[in-house]
């Protein structure tokens, strides 16, 4: 019972923390004059992934690699099968071939790279450096192409930044939103991992399964919220 409550509380805090962090970051970016394109591409993109990042880093620090990796893999599966499927049920979507051609290929390539690097059973600092370097290269390439060419992705990323409502307007509120978001993310991560590890041990299933399922779905809630709201508004 205690582990279940800890899981639930952790998921709620991660959701609220992710929302607060995204809105504070978007408001801060607008206040600093950052373009909607860059805001949508980087701030919203990374903001909605903050729960996965915090939980997986926390799990890695705790030496719980099964939960860390399971959360990442499960979240990506959930993003494609659960969130995309749910949004398509709410509002059938048109997929632009140009958008799919670039970002779809990158998704497949990143997944294949992860499989190759993890095939040996371990991911070290060299592999981590390669992954981060490729992420940086992709972001720079995506921003350059969307800024200099008329691509559907540019409209999509700009719309992501513009669609967020109820963002703080004053500097003080932006700071409060960012700080509260970080506090809730860290606290939610602690509660989620405590509940996940305890639940796995109490019912005799592996931490990898918990990471792939409950933890992954819980950390994917910000993406689900943003996507479902966007689908409902269409």
How would you portray this structure in words?
- The chain is an all-alpha fold and 234 residues long.
- It has one domain (2-96, 155-233).
- The chain has helices at 2-31, 36-48, 50-61, 65-90, 97-118, 125-148, 152-163, 171-203, 207-219, 221-233.
- Helix 2 (36-48) packs antiparallel against helix 6, helix 4 (65-90) crosses helix 9 and helix 4 runs parallel beside helix 10 (221-233).
- It is globular and about 55 Å long.
- The model has no long low-confidence stretch (mean pLDDT 78).
Concise structural overview:
By secondary structure, the protein is an all-alpha fold.
Features:
10 helices, 234 residues, mainly alpha
> Terminal Cα separation, in Å?
40 Å
Biggest pleated-sheet summary: none
Query: Considering DSSP H and I runs of 4 or more, what fraction of the residues is helical?
Result: over 70%
Class from secondary-structure proportions: mainly alpha
Low-confidence stretches: none
